Amino acid sequence: MTKNILTKLLARMAPAILFFAPALGSASTISLVPSSTVVTVGDTFTVDLIASDLQLGGYDVTFGYNPLLGGIDLDHIDFDVHLGGPANSFAAWIATLDTLELTEVSFLTSPADLMALQGDPCFALAHIPVTALIPGVLSLDFTPSPFFGATDYSGAPIEGVNYVGASITILPAAEPPASEAPEPHPAVLILTGVCLVAAARLGRRMQNRKVAAQCRVLVAGRR
User: What is the mean pLDDT of residues 192-204?
Assistant: First the structure.
């Protein structure tokens, strides 16, 4: 293929490449992003629900987790403002033993109003506090539910959204530092005990001799 033919072919393909470039360069996602992927037992960390390359009017997502590894503080789940909340959206959560469902629907019907709130490529939808309970790997995996999905400003479903979970490694709590004073050798303990017993016996003998001497003096005086 000559250079001229290749140049003409690329020129004809350019419009198609430019047309598909935005779609290829972006991937609409809703993901769970922990503030740290490695924590220690007893640590409290935050998992953020993040939307990327989306213009949302509402969403409903559910994820599962192991409640033995991580405890979610349901009273402090915080929904963000990018759908108009708290005044201009309805937000709620539903929890079971090992799942958490988050849902929010914006009351704003103007695309311009939502775009003003969602101008960044990525924006937070909710913040979930979690406490690490025991060592292990805590997996947060999206799971299907009856209303699972994302919608635009008009309430129409948004297709092709990727849902990405998270994984957090929980390490054991650090053990308290060992005492710097060395422990005595067992032989030293035994020798010390023997010496104490011998000293006690010697002390009793000396005391007995002292008492006997005093008695002899007393008897001699009476004579």
Answer: 59
As a whole number, the mean pLDDT across the chain is 81
Q: How many structural domains is the chain composed of? A: 2
Closest by alpha carbon to 120, among 205, 71, 52? 52
Let me know if residue 178 belongs to a domain.
no
* Burial status of residue 206 (CB atoms within 10 A of its CB: 0-12, 13-18, 19 or more): exposed
Report d(CA 193, CA 189) in Å as an integer. Answer: 6
Burial of 136-155, coded b for 16+ CB within 10 Å and e otherwise, reads bebebebeeeeeebbbebee
Same domain membership, residue 99 and residue 70? yes
72-92 tens-digit pLDDT:
999 999 999 999 999 999 999
CA distance 36 to 45: 7
The one-letter amino acid code at 82 reads H
Within-domain flag for 14:
no
For tokens 């490695």, the residue is 38
What's the whole-number mean pLDDT along residues 126-154?
A: 96
Position 135 scores a pLDDT of 98
The answer as to whether 22 is a domain residue is: no
Q: Mean pLDDT throughout 145-172?
A: 96
Same domain, 158 and 189: no
Distance CA 147, CA 191 (A): 77
How are the residues of the chain apportioned to helix, strand and coil, as percentages rounded to the nearest 5?
Answer: 30, 35, 35
